[in-house]
Amino acid sequence: MPDHRERITKTVEMSGEPVEIYMTKMMTPCTSEEFKAMSVEERETAKVQPPLNQRTYSPEEGIVCMQDIPVKMRDGVTIYADIYKPEAEGRYPLIISWSFYGKRPFDGQSEWQIMGVPPQTVSNMSKFESPDPGYWCRRGYAVANVDPRGIGHSEGDFVQFGSQDGKDGYDFIEWAAKQSWCSGRCALSGNSCVAMTQWRIASQQPPHLTCMAPWESTTDMYRESLCEGGIPAHSFVRLVMKEACGPNYMDSTPDNLEKYPFIDCAYWKDKDPVWENVTIPVYQTACWNHFHLRGSINAFRKCRSRRKWLRVHRDFEWPDAYSNENLKDLELFFARYLKLERNGWELTPKVRIEVQDTGEFLTMKNRPEENFPLKRTKYEKLYLDASDRSMKKEPVEKTAMAVYESETGEVWFDYRFEEDTELTGYMKLRLHVAAESYNDMDLFIAVQKLSTKGDLLPVTLFGEPHPGAWGKMRVSRRKLDEKLSTDYCPVQAHIYDEKLKPGQIVPVDIEIVPTSRFFHKGQQIRVSIAGRYIRGDWFEPLMWNSDNQGNHLIYTGGEYDSFLQIPVIPPRFQDGDFIIR
What we know:
7-stranded antiparallel beta sheet, 581 residues, 16% helix, Galactose-bd-like_sf, 11-stranded mixed beta sheet, 31 strands, hydrolase activity, Rossmann fold
């Protein structure tokens, strides 16, 4: 169904300079009666929103909600929040959810289900991907569900994931800290979009922001969301954007990717967190099998806080966030920094990882580590050999070529482990490639596990097989950013296109997202290369605007040192057959 919403251009301040951007009219708030009276076409651009109703009421016994509280920003724009707190008089630390999902659970994206979380686990006070007042208020905290600028009945236009969101978050925190019901200590919390905004707010360093818990957070909007590997991805972002509801306009990031196709401009810089400004305590989580993975781990590595913790798991973000075990863990973190309890939180390992095996099975759960990547990592190269579609531990002498049809084909290379092997950390793939009859190539990489008999052994979430650790590259964007790249993690620069001549062979270094998998003796690792994303039954609606024609050629051996670099983790201790990992 076509999108009938109006698109305009506006000039806004970004990174300290005026930038002309595309903005799209959001879903228009309306009452139920107004919605019923609309035509089918009008309903496509409207969403039911309750009218402003400033009141104080009790949604559940022992909890008070101060609804539709107006808060004025520094430029005079008014935004609205629902504040939940314990019924007893007192001054409570505040946990803030900041996102465009709608500040009540049935506003905004009401039709989204919390997959993997049984009904009644989360109260009707909880907004999507956010801390549940039904849990936190009963433990002595207040919770703020905020409609940012432009969302719901909040005034202004919504410029997503930029410095304006950060400045407004600063103003809200400083307003809240002065209220009679607030202790003056505030935190940010939530998953996904709610986590992503936290880094932009923390970058502004509001004095009363005491700590933050961004559980799963994309942090580089260009490299991780809109243009992963240099391949544009519009559909998922448009799907999410379409549900934003407010009276005015929102920043249309897919359209602005077309307007600003390279990363070195004020538009994209404005969406980058200021890592050196984030010095408060941070509890970051990441999922090995989720598109927030890269951003979450980079956030942990880049922020300047000396009090930061990372937990990386195999489960999907929603069941992970609302599980009893993890809620109690987060409660220890908040109690330490919001209530100043001496509860031993500092003894929590700086890094905890789950080492995945097969399906839903783990080799180890929450294994303590000191850092990420792990210091004891030994990087090894597995050299691709197109003559027999294998990988070998030694360089391949004889040159060979593999070919696949770019729109429908696939080629893979396998290696069998001769002993139990753990791979945890960053992989990279060096390829020598050519487009037989075209001027560009989009490469989609999957790194997978095979059984001793050669059958795929995927990790599963919600019973569905994950495609595997991934990497992507548009070959015309092969230039790397020398400052951001390391020997174990190449990072593309995205500052110009460098088209191919048909048949021209070029080397490319492809970033593979971090992973943790255990391979038992005799099991195999596979590198799959294709011109499209091969998802199988994987449920996430991710699509890329690929640009391929004709055959792709992969060269190996001799002068073409194509290889997969893997992060091998040796045992902590070994004595004969006795091993401690």
